[in-house]
Specification:
single chain; 140 residues; two-stranded antiparallel sheet; 3% strand
Length: 140
């Protein structure tokens, strides 16, 4: 299967995952300051929405690039995505609170951080692959 078909399928799966995440987070009560009481909104909905949005963005970029970029990115993503999933699943769903400037790491914050790091490093991998290809083509 060509890399375009693989990326197209992964892109479609990320869109479906995003829609599922949004549907999981829908049960909100506007009378109670939009407090969501969905059963899985904190544990599954938020991490799935953040992760699928990051994947959606990267697959959109990779779709328009040659297969060498996809192969380089896949080497990076093969270890980062499982590590991020484990990190998010190990964090608590809520914090006990804090005093002063103490920062609480819950699932939502872990999701935002891992998604942001994933997107930034994905673009770094794509840019580094571009530089390597330019140097390689300049030598030929």
């Amino acid at each position: 299967m060509s890399h375009k078909k693989i990326i197209r399928n992964l892109f479609a799966m990320s869109v479906v995952a995003f829609i599922i995440a949004v549907l999981m987070m829908l049960p909100c009560d506007p009378q109670r300051n939009y407090v969501c009481e969905g059963k899985f909104s904190d544990t599954v909905g938020q991490p799935l929405m953040g992760g699928s949005a990051a994947l959606f963005l990267i697959f959109l970029v990779l779709f328009f690039l040659p297969s060498i970029y996809f192969k380089a990115w896949l080497k990076y993503a093969a270890w980062f995505i499982p590590v991020a999933v484990v990190w998010i699943s190990m964090t608590s769903t809520s914090c006990g609170g804090g005093f002063g400037l103490s920062m609480c790491l819950d699932k939502e914050l872990a999701t935002w951080w891992s998604s942001g790091i994933y997107v930034v490093f994905s673009f770094i991998v794509i840019g580094a692959t571009s530089l390597v290809n330019r140097k390689r083509s300049a030598r030929i």
